Amino acid sequence: MRPVYRQYLPAVAHVYDPVKGIVTHPQTEAYQAQVNALTWQLAAPDPQPLQVETSLSNLRDLSQQLATERVFTTPNGDNSLATLQQALQARTGQSSAQAAFKRFWTIDYLSQRGWRPELAFWNSQIRPFFEANYYRRITPLGLPVDYFWLIDLPFILVFAVDIISRIRASYRRKPHLTWVEAALRRWYDLFLLLPFWRGLRTISVALRLYQVDMLNLEPVRAEAQRDVVVTVGADIAGMAGIEIIEQVQNSIREGELLDWAAWINPNVETSSEIEIVAEEEIAAIANALYTIGVQDILPQVQPDIEDLVQHSIAKTLEQLPGYPKASYLPGLEQLSTQVKQGLSHSLAHGLYRTIANSLADPKGEEITARLQHNLREATAKALSQHNTRQDIEQRLISALEKFKLNYVKALAETGGETLAERTELLRRQIS
Question: Model confidence over 282-330: pLDDT tens digits?
């Protein structure tokens, strides 16, 4: 930006150039001094031909240095040199830049074209490129002089105070965090403290504006998140799914799954507190399910149970000798129906009452607990006989292996793009 503010705000260039160690380039400064001397010599009342020729010779030598040495060292120096060379070639009609400079700085050319309009052309078209050229002083370490950190230091101190206060506030709100973790919660603010790569501070500014709803970065966040999901989402889902399946397979191989299916193997003594707590929790769950089944579920299905008992009684009576013929006698058919209904109702109601009373009866509760215990023992014993347990475990492992292959195949066929679209659709439906 130096050419811009040097042209429109020269005071800024005068103040800011020492900060960057910028000084006028000695060669271009000498060139301009020689042009000024030539101008004074030609404008004198009695020009001295020898002095004028000496100045023109010096300008031709300096022009030769422009072509052989890299004098224009500014960021756009090469473009500036090429632009002024092309302008001088067009002015003199020469095919090369060296010939154009050599032709321009001759007494014959200046006398033929008039030295005043030619020097006016030089001052308006060529001199600005020479004046814009500069040279940066070098430190003993071989780096360009740069004192900008003196200007930036007060801002960094303000940023540091603000960041430290925010980290302390976050630490007080969440004492479980360490100071490092509290600082990493605001990682983007650390860009404000960097004395280099200052352009990264825009990240911190943008995120702060986003937090106070002054800048909408939601489309950027959604697109960045979508790219991550598309590229690695399917791989992560595959690895997570495979890990879960393999953990289940390992549990089956070690016999843990069927032990839990049998409500903790009663034949194995529980040695750890975790297993004791797990057994207690499972027993509590079983008791709760038993209570719910007796108090809430059985009353609702009691009519169906009565119909089932009545049907079973009817089937049993039909198998008795002579009952089918006796049921057709007058009055016996209706009596038979009433007997079956009453008997089924009594059996179902009695069964429900017996089970319900067992919950309030200490003896019934003891019998129920023994029933649960014996059921667990019978289940574990049945699984251990005739290689039943090993066969079930092997079949479960094989089924999970096939499921794992199908799972990975389905993920590969679906792809991350489809997964991202489904996730985005679900989010829209929720919102």
Answer: 566 666 766 776 667 767 776 776 677 666 666 665 665 655 555 554 5
Task: Specify the pLDDT at position 297.
Answer: 74
Q: Does one domain contain both 29 and 104?
A: yes
User: In the listed set 171, 194, 215, which residue is the last one of a domain according to the structure?
Assistant: 215
The CA-CA-CA angle for residues 99, 130, 25, to 5°, reads 115
- CA-based nearest residue to 129, from 73, 68, 58: 73
Same domain for 331 and 310? yes
Q: Is 166 left (phi over 0), alpha (psi -120 to 50) or beta?
A: alpha
Does some domain include residue 333? yes
In this structure, the answer to whether residues 336 and 358 fall within a common structural domain is yes
Give the pLDDT band of residue 270 (cuts 50, 70, 90).
Answer: very low
CB 145 within 8 A of CB 138: yes
Q: Pick the last residue of a domain from 95, 115, 136.
A: 136
Q: Could you tell me if 116 and 6 are in contact, meaning their C-beta atoms sit under 8 angstroms apart?
A: no
What whole-number distance in Å separates Cα of residue 171 and Cα of residue 180? 10
Asked if the structure places residue 395 within a domain, the reply is no
pLDDT, average across residues 149-163: 93
**Rounded CA separation 75/81 (Å):** 12
Model pLDDT for residues 82-122, shown as the tens digit of each residue: 898 999 999 998 888 889 999 999 999 998 989 999 999 99
Close Cβ partners of 260 (under 8 Å, ≥ 6 residues apart): 282
Residue 141 lies in a domain: no
Do 123 and 180 belong to one domain?
A: no
Of 185-199, 254-268, 332-346, 347-361, the least confident: 254-268
Tens-digit pLDDT profile for residues 331-385: 545 545 666 666 666 766 666 666 666 656 676 667 767 766 676 667 666 666 6
What is the value of pTM for the model shown? 0.47
Q: How far apart are CA 147 and CA 56, in angstroms?
A: 40
Helix (H, G, I), strand (E, B) or coil at 307: helix
Which region holds residue 48: left if phi is over 0, alpha if psi is between -120 and 50, else beta?
beta
Residue-number span of the structural domain to which 209 is assigned: 148-215
257 CB-near residues (< 8 Å, 6+ apart): 248, 251, 393, 396
Query: By the 8 A CB rule, do 259 and 268 touch?
Result: yes
* Residues 285, 364 within the same domain: yes
Written as six digits, the tokens of 371 are 């029933």
58: CB partners within 8 A, 6+ apart: 34
Question: What total number of domains does the chain contain?
Answer: 3
